Amino acid sequence: MTLLTIESSPWHRNDFAVPYPTYFHPSNDNEVFQWQNRMRRQRRRFLFSFAGAPRPNLPDSIRNQIIDQCSASRRKCKLLECGLVGSKCHTPVNVMKMFQSSVFCLQPPGDSYTRRSVFDSILAGCIPVFFHPGSAYVQYLWHLPKNYTKYSVFIPGNSIKSGNASIEKILHRIPREEVVAMREEVIRLISKVIYANPKSRLETLEDAFDIAVKAVLERVETVRRDMREGRNSSLLLMKRCLGSILCWGQTLLNMNGILSLIKQMPTFKLGNRTTNKFNFFIVVVESCSS
């Protein structure tokens, strides 16, 4: 059995994360190309932005520090506080406009490590900034590049929590040519993280559903082949699909041939509301007979 969910668990090898649904469901390739070109032409007035609310009940949360840094960088950072009554954060068009006007979009963990906002920012051509590898790098292995530096920026969350890192300074130091290359990679990813209109289909592009189906079929074929050859398919699949993860807690990433040890908060320490995030999933039952 394969479980496709918006957030996978490192404890279940049959879990595979797929992108959160966004607001864009194109009916043909041309609609995707037009949107991508529009994102390339966007005037981005803010260096970075954040849409979210504090998490006072989660002691490991860095959202308070992020909100404080964004408020202190008012000319460089656009803040949309979602915890306020009547906040514009709850209107999708306001969130997308903010992302479209920003170079970088901050994506700290919330109730759990992943956020739909990650895919909203990609859709807006905004480079995501992550603070924990569980937010994307060890989740969306089928849909996002293994070399995370191609499309995102990583800032260790503990450096924000301790007050030793300035988000504005880190992002401002990135050379312009690298920023342009990352944004172009993000825009190219748009077709891979959206779900096309189910009443039509894309011709030359693969959407998130196409990629997931292809990966599941490849996984089924791998299991069948390994069973015929008497190999331990479980270990092989874990190595194949989770090769970028050697452990959590202290997460060892192997990306682009570089090993880096990143000390992070305890593995999947979820808040009380996280069970709501697992309501969207697809179960694929595989037949492994030859």
Write the layout of secondary structure elements.
Elements: E1 2-5, E2 15-17, H1 29-41, E3 46-52, H2 63-72, E4 77-81, H3 92-100, E5 102-107, H4 117-123, E6 127-130, E7 153-154, H5 157-161, H6 167-172, H7 176-193, H8 208-228, H9 233-241, E8 250-255, E9 258-263, E10 281-284
Parallel strand pairs: 1-2, 3-4, 3-5, 5-6, 6-7
Antiparallel strand pairs: 1-10, 8-9
Oligomeric assembly: single chain
What is the radius of gyration? 19 Å
The count of helical stretches stands at: 9
Using the alpha-carbon principal axes, give the shape.
globular
Give an overview of the whole structure.
It is found in: Golgi apparatus membrane. It is a single-pass type II membrane protein. There is one protein chain. The protein has one domain (1-290). The protein contains 9 helices and 10 strands. The longest helix has 21 residues, at 208-228. The strands form 3 sheets. Strands 4-3-5-6-7 form a 5-stranded parallel beta sheet, sandwiched between helices. A 3-stranded mixed beta sheet has the order 2-1-10, with no helix packed on it. β8 (250-255) and β9 form a beta hairpin. It has 290 residues and is an alpha/beta fold. The model is unreliable at 240-290 (pLDDT under 50). The two termini are 16 Å apart.
Concise synopsis of the structure shown:
The chain has 290 residues and is an alpha/beta fold. It is built from 9 helices and 10 strands.
List the main descriptive attributes of the protein structure presented here.
disordered C terminus; single chain; 3-stranded mixed sheet; golgi apparatus; 290 residues; 34% helix; Exostosin; glycosyltransferase; 5-stranded parallel sheet
